[in-house]
Amino acid sequence: MKLTQRDVDRLKGVHPDLVKLVQAVSDMLLGPMTFMVIEGLRTAERQRELVKAGKSQTQNSRHLTGHAVDLGVLIDGKLTWDFKVYKTLADIVKAHAARLGAPIVWGGDWKTLKDGPHFELDRKVYP
């Protein structure tokens, strides 16, 4: 799968290591499962809107600094919100992150507000 121009545009302002990771994963995905970039860098205003809507719990999101992306899983070209599918994508992303030396945190591993589409560079390495 190749990233679309829309995906590339949504990666503008995202940390180069995270962009490389997203590109690497997209280059290896074949078959019925692909993904789209839902969102990368966010404005403070957008973050406030998401908190107000209950879709985020913090004004300190890694999206504000370009250290996070949300990836939407597509099955046969259709967006799905099935958490099991996001777990599969997360396993692939984590494996590639380890190979690239760019540790990440997956929102699906959080204890509260599990966020399957969310991937961020680990704060311990990328403050």
Rg is 14 Å
CATH domain topology: Muramoyl-pentapeptide Carboxypeptidase, domain 2
- Indicate the percent of residues in helices: 25-40%
Q: How many β strands by DSSP? A: 5
Q: Report the principal-axis shape.
A: globular
Distance between the termini: 31 Å
GO molecular function: peptidase activity
Protein name: Peptidase M15
Domain Peptidase M15C: 56-121
InterPro entries: Peptidase_M15C (IPR039561), Zn_M74/Hedgehog-like (IPR009045)
Describe this structure in words.
Helices cover 36% and strands 19% of the residues. α2 packs across α4 (83-100). The chain is globular, with a radius of gyration of 14 Å. The chain has a single domain (5-121), classed as Muramoyl-pentapeptide Carboxypeptidase, domain 2 (2-Layer Sandwich). It is of the alpha+beta class and 127 residues long. The chain has 4 helices and 5 strands. The mean pLDDT is 93. It has helices at residues 5-10, 16-28, 44-52, 83-100, and strands at residues 33-39, 68-75, 78-79, 104-106, 118-121. Strands 1, 2, 3, 4 and 5 form a 5-stranded antiparallel sheet that branches. Pfam families: Peptidase_M15_4 (PF13539). This is Peptidase M15. One of its GO terms (molecular function) is peptidase activity. Residues 56-121 form the Peptidase M15C domain. It comes from Cupriavidus nantongensis.
